[in-house]
Amino acid sequence: MQRIVILNPKGGSGKTTVATNLAAWLAAADTEPALMDLDPQGSATRWLRKRSAESAPIYGIAAFEKAASVTRSWQLRVPPGCQAVVVDTPAAIHSRHFPEVTRGAHAVLVPVMPSDIDIHATAKCISDLLLVAKIRRSEGRLGIIANRVRSNTKVSQRLTRFLDSLDIPLVATLRDSQNYVRSAESGEGLVEMPRWQVWPDLAEWEKLLSWLAGRRRDGLPRQLAVSAPATKLIC
Fold it and tell me: What residue segments make up the domains of the chain, in order of their start?
């Protein structure tokens, strides 16, 4: 089972946007994914509750909740048959918790916004992942997602220079698009929305899924590296 962790202690970096849309894409590819919500705000869990009954199933794990009636291991269980679990981590997570959160992860994705504050915070996050969580660059598990990028702006150029200096792959550059607002409001992933509406954004998601397919160890389907199923893109 593939475990994909979305992590950046900086609030507002786009972790839930990445986690929910990634889970929707995996569901569209019939991988029966689970979406684990560690964030006390519960945004990913609310997104799941908005999903239509006709949508491809995503198993939700509200890991931020404390249930006295069951054990923690039972609460965090992933059902048999799930081929991937996407973990949405909270903001302000301390670096001492990085080893626990990233343990067993096949991929750790770090979204970063194009602002000086976010760039500075992400630099520390990457440093802590390397030094505290002991994730080595040579393992190829660590990837960066540039989020809400507007092309040809000074801040996007600064972000590009920063990312070039990290020697860590930039696996996707997501546009500053209203499609993500619609996705959050509807409980749909971009892959499930009308193609005429989302086509400018799909290419970067295909890049991300292609990178993840290269990280797979036990079953993330190869078709993820190509495109979403055509039936999910018909308007």
Answer: 2-232
